[in-house]
């Protein structure tokens, strides 16, 4: 008998990006979309095109670039939103319009101030309008988890009649428990007369830590699409985690008897990439991709593992793409070993980028004895995610003594005037209560932007006293948040690089907006 398949709908770039402070720039979104296709995701929700010009551009670019997965764009149930969404996704090989409208009485009455009847009418009209533009239309009944089941069935039946080929049942506020949510799906299957004309999808939030359990319960009861995000990021406590769902279905294949197209060996790469670009760290005990997911501390467990791995492991680290031993590079490693490592880590670089990277690797190996995978990834991504470089740090000198620090920074500023580009180099000195404070004050004097530092974190990228330090920060400029990341064996330099990257993002966004 042919096995059923569960469609993986990834919303890292939409719901995931709604995680507080997780905004991504275009290059970062493209990197993630590329990794999602390598991962084998069936549908990528690339964004919410009507929500901002930036989102529209990102969805459009991803639609033009990605050839294998379907590309979905989210929209409210209005003609204006749907048209904007279509204009962004129409370039995709397989475009999908994803419309949402709330169906719980709470949302209908309090948020939308409408009646059930009006919502039914709006939903039908929106889906019909979308169907004229795109053959693949998904409808989401927002807050379905708290919607009256009979009314929800009526809405589902209506939107299928109007042309929806996927009906999504979101547990928007993560309120349901597995038995309850599974029953909801089973009721929909029983009560909706035309349900065989559409795929039932679920979209579970993790407010009670049950998003994955609820999604699995829905699959048992007939759902054939799961909406999820890498590392489970998303609004509030996040969404169902893609890696947990993919591995649960794989490890418990004997129970679910269901397939999916996720290449599980790419899960770890995807997790690291998303964590690095969003700045949302993965908790060490996170299932599947956490640093401790395969670490055995107890002597009894270690002994068992050495005798027979299955005693304490239900899956191999290599199943999810974690390497069992990582080959460490150093000062004496040649081009061959280095480029093999870059390839094994899943990166394809053109000749120019490869040469630049090799030089950076050599510089680093003069300062650092052992170069780990994490160091190489940090070097690659430092450059690949940099937006238009307007400001470049040319020089810095920081001294600290008894609670007073002084910093001197020299920054070049790329300016365009009458189609001519020129560099203006400025040097400033400032004092502060610590080295970073002094440094950022000196840079602020040069760039003359009203910047507020919102978040600052420092971590070691790899192990050892000479580990690369990585600074991740967020700044606020003219009401928007921008993130920046910098790595260096010198943590003050890492802090400077991160700040300059965030300033570049803020400035280039401002320039684009002005244009
Ligand atoms: O949580 C939710 O209800 C959503 C919908 C827009 C699908 O994200
Ligand atoms: Zn959601």
Which cofactor or ligand species appear? 3-methyl-2-oxobutanoic acid, zinc ion
**How many domains comprise the coordinates?**
3
Rounded radius of gyration (Å): 25 Å
Low-confidence region ranges: none
Strand content: 15-25%
CATH fold-level name of the largest domain: TIM Barrel
Which structural category do the helix and sheet elements fall into? alpha/beta
Q: What's the CATH C level of the largest domain?
A: Alpha Beta
Tell me the CATH superfamily of the largest domain: Aldolase class I
- The spatial strand order of the largest sheet comes to 2-3-4-5-6-7-8-9
Oligomer category: single chain
- The helix tally amounts to 17
Morphology = globular
> Mean pLDDT, rounded to whole units?
91
Looking at the overall shape, the CATH architecture of the largest domain is: Alpha-Beta Barrel
Number of strand elements? 18
Please outline the helices and strands.
Blueprint: E1 4-5, E2 7-10, H1 26-39, E3 43-47, H2 53-65, E4 70-76, H3 79-89, E5 95-102, H4 105-111, H5 116-133, E6 137-142, H6 149-162, E7 166-171, H7 178-191, E8 199-204, H8 211-220, E9 225-228, H9 242-251, H10 253-256, E10 258-259, H11 267-278, H12 299-307, E11 329-330, H13 335-344, H14 351-367, E12 370-371, H15 373-384, E13 391-401, E14 404-417, E15 420-432, H16 435-447, E16 452-460, E17 469-477, E18 480-488, H17 491-514
Helix pairs in contact: 1-2, 1-11, 2-3, 3-5, 5-6, 6-7, 7-8, 16-17
Bound molecules: 3-methyl-2-oxobutanoic acid and zinc ion.
Zinc ion binds next to loops.
